[in-house]
Every structure is written in structure tokens, then in C-alpha cells.
Design brief:
single chain, 393 residues, Jelly Rolls, 8-stranded antiparallel sheet, 3 helices, 30 strands, elongated, steroid binding, lipid-binding, Laminin_G
């Protein structure tokens, strides 16, 4: 376990000071195209703004929203420095509103699924004791609440935020995973025209013109899982299977533990090579021609590793089932701790449309560590060569 902690701390090192300081980054317009993904902190909003309630003429905000992500934080607002708060999120692709006011906590979920990859017009507004959510000009949710302990007169400041919350997650009535791989455009936030403060850990990236399901690796960064957190062994005969579908080139995956490292990567050209390092034997296997649709099946047996039904490594000295249960690093897209030269050469570039471990879909938002450049839930439909251009909506 110490090995896992050391590697993750090494990868997170450049971000630790930023995460602790929570300082604001650049100021950006809330009306343009905003990518909610690509930042290190989970709960800190990627951007926020505030105003005096006396300057607000209408508690109404609307914006266009697009995602393939089933769960995450979208829009947040509060008054009284977070004593009264509201958050709009997705759960199973369906809108969910949670409200905290005085002694009341409310959670309501309903309406159509929004994670279909299409643009939807969302409007959130306050109507007295009710909060209303409209989707494409149709009312989807209405939440009403009243507390005898709450003050009817609104005064002080109102705060708005995107992609996170400004209050402690412990206040949630129904917890959720906050990461949101989505894009927002054309926002009108109350009647405010002032710029928003962006979180310093957020990396501005354009939204893809058109998207499809999958996890996109742009040739930078990895996603790391602790195998003890993944589905385990069912039967020794079947072993543990990792299935990957998509189009890619570069390092597909690596498996690491103390004194052991296995790397499955495609080297330059059209020949794919699996590398088994640290004194273990080498092997080779054709895995995925660059940029062409492919399926990879990586099977872990008690004393061997198998790629697409072909044994790649056999050793009686290692018990892979025990190592998996106790915790190894399963990394998609590269090798943790690789030199900068190796990283630049070997990082995965492409779209992993689906990753299955023991038949269960793996969500990169649940990774032990995921680089900010990696998109968890969407891939561009453009060809790989077109990805170098400046994609705009």
C-alpha cells in the first residue's frame, strides 16, 4: 500500500500547493463556452461570482448544457454565506435539485435524462418559496419549501458557482460524485455582467465540436486505479479480465506493484509490443493498429498474464490473484513514474470507448488519480489528425 501512496503523491505533487491555497485564477466571462472538466479539485467550483442582492432584479439563470456524463455538479447558488444554498446536479443522467434552508434539507430528482450528448437549454429560477427547473422551455421540476425559522427578507450577497459547491459536501442530503465532464454555453446568470473568478486548478480547454461516448486521452496524462477497489476474482479458471474497446495508439495499460511492472504498449510504427520490465521476460503481441477500432482483452490468471488469448507472461513465483486483492496500480494511458522522455513518447492517444473489469463498466471519475487532460465521459468524433486544430462550437 505504501508503494501506491508514494506513486500517487508523486503525481499530485505539482498540484498540492494550488489545492491548499484555493486561490482564484483568471477572470472569465460566464457567457462563452465553458468546459466543466479538466481540473484537479473535485468539489471546488471551477468558477464563481457574487453580487449584492439589492442589485438583483430577477432570480433567474439560463444556459445551454451538453454532456454524456451521468453524474456530477452543474450549478450552485447560495445566500447568507452558505446558510441557505441550492445545487443542481445529475444522477443517472436525470436532474436533481438539493436545497438547504434553515432547518430543512430537500432532495428532488426527476425529468428527462440530459446525458445524451445533445445541447439542452436549462433555466433555474426562484418563484417565492418555489425553485423551478425548465429544460428546453418545459417545466421539469418544481421544489417548494417553507421554514418558520427562515427569514423572508433576502439581504446581503448571493453567490453563484459552476461545477462544484461553496459549502461542505457533508451538508448534502443525498451525496453524489461531483466531477462533471460537460460543456456550458450562452449563460445568462441573474442580471449580472461581471466576469467570474476561475479556480486556479482549472485548465481551460475547448469543447469538442461533436462528441461520442468514451474516455479521451490526448497524448498526455493517465488514469490510475487501485486494483483492490475494482471487481475481484470470481473463479480461478476465468481469472480477472480487463476489456478495452476503442481506437488508440501508445501505452494501453500498465500493472505495477513493489518489484513488479508490466507494460502493454504500442511502439513506433504499426507493431505493438508488450514490455515486461524489472527483470521479467519480454513478449510481443499485436494489440491495436493506430486509430483503428479495436478490442483488447487482458486476462490475469494466478501465475500468468494473457493478451487476446495469448499468454504474455508466465511465472510461478508470483500470485497475481493475491496481488490484485492486496492492491496493485492498474494504469490506463501510461506508466506512473516514467521519465518525461518516455511519457512524451508513450502516452496513450485516442478514445477508449468502454473499459470493463470483470464485465463491469469502469468510470474514470472513480480513479485513484486522473490527469486533468483526460476526459472521463466524452471523445471527439473528429479524426485524430483533426484534434490538433482549434475546435469550437
Amino acid at each position: 500500500m505504501n508503494y501506491l501512496k508514494e506513486v500517487v503523491i508523486l503525481l499530485l505533487g505539482p498540484y498540492l500547493i494550488l489545492l491548499c491555497r484555493r486561490v482564484s485564477g483568471e477572470q472569465i466571462s460566464g457567457k462563452g463556452v465553458i468546459n466543466l472538466a479538466h481540473r484537479q479539485s473535485k468539489w471546488t467550483p471551477l468558477m464563481q461570482t457574487s453580487a449584492n442582492l439589492s442589485d438583483i432584479t430577477s432570480i433567474r439563470s439560463f444556459f445551454e448544457f451538453r454532456t454524456l456524463d451521468p453524474e456530477g455538479a452543474v450549478f450552485y447558488g447560495d445566500t447568507k454565506e452558505g446558510q441557505d444554498w441550492f445545487v443542481l446536479s445529475l444522477r443517472d443522467g436525470i436532474p436533481e435539485m438539493q436545497i438547504g434552508k434553515a432547518d430543512i434539507l430537500v432532495s428532488v430528482k426527476g425529468g428527462r435524462k440530459l446525458n445524451d450528448g445533445a445541447w439542452h437549454l436549462l433555466e433555474v429560477r426562484s418563484e417565492g418559496k418555489f425553485v423551478v427547473l425548465e429544460v428546453n422551455n418545459n417545466v421539469e421540476l418544481i421544489v417548494g419549501l417553507h421554514s418558520k425559522l427562515a427569514e423572508d427578507e433576502l439581504k446581503g450577497k448571493i453567490r453563484l458557482a459552476l461545477g462544484g459547491m461553496l459549502v461542505d459536501k457533508q451538508k448534502l442530503f443525498h451525496p453524489f460524485e461531483p466531477e462533471m465532464d460537460a460543456c456550458i454555453r450562452g449563460g445568462h446568470w441573474l442580471n449580472l455582467s461581471t466576469p467570474w473568478d476561475a479556480d486556479s486548478t482549472w485548465e481551460h480547454r475547448h469543447c469538442f465540436f461533436e462528441i461520442k461516448k468514451g474516455s479521451f486521452f490526448p497524448g498526455t496524462g493517465v488514469a490510475i486505479f487501485n486494483t483492490s477497489d475494482l471487481p475481484g476474482l470470481k473463479t480461478e479458471e476465468a481469472g480477472i479480465t480487463v476489456e478495452i474497446f476503442g481506437s488508440w495508439t501508445g501505452t494501453t495499460l500498465s500493472l505495477q506493484s513493489t518489484g513488479f511492472e508490466y507494460v502493454l504498449r504500442e511502439l513506433e510504427g504499426n507493431k505493438d509490443v508488450t514490455e515486461v520490465q524489472l527483470g521479467l521476460k519480454e513478449g510481443s503481441e499485436s494489440v491495436a493498429p493506430p486509430h483503428e477500432p479495436a478490442t483488447l482483452t487482458f486476462t490475469i490468471l494466478k501465475h500468468s498474464l494473457v493478451v487476446n488469448s495469448k499468454p504474455e507472461l508466465e511465472t510461478e513465483s508470483l500470485d497475481f490473484f493475491s496481488m490484485w486483492k492486496n492492491g496493485m496500480l492498474l494504469t490506463f494511458g501510461g506508466v506512473p513514474g516514467d521519465s518525461e522522455e518516455a511519457k512524451n513518447t508513450h502516452y496513450l492517444r485516442g478514445c477508449l470507448e468502454k473499459i470493463l473489469v470483470q464485465g463491469q463498466v469502469i468510470d474514470l471519475d472513480r480513479a485513484l488519480y486522473k490527469h486533468t487532460a483526460v476526459s472521463s465521459h466524452c471523445c471527439p468524433t473528429e479524426t485524430m489528425n483533426e484534434l490538433n486544430r482549434d475546435t469550437r462550437h
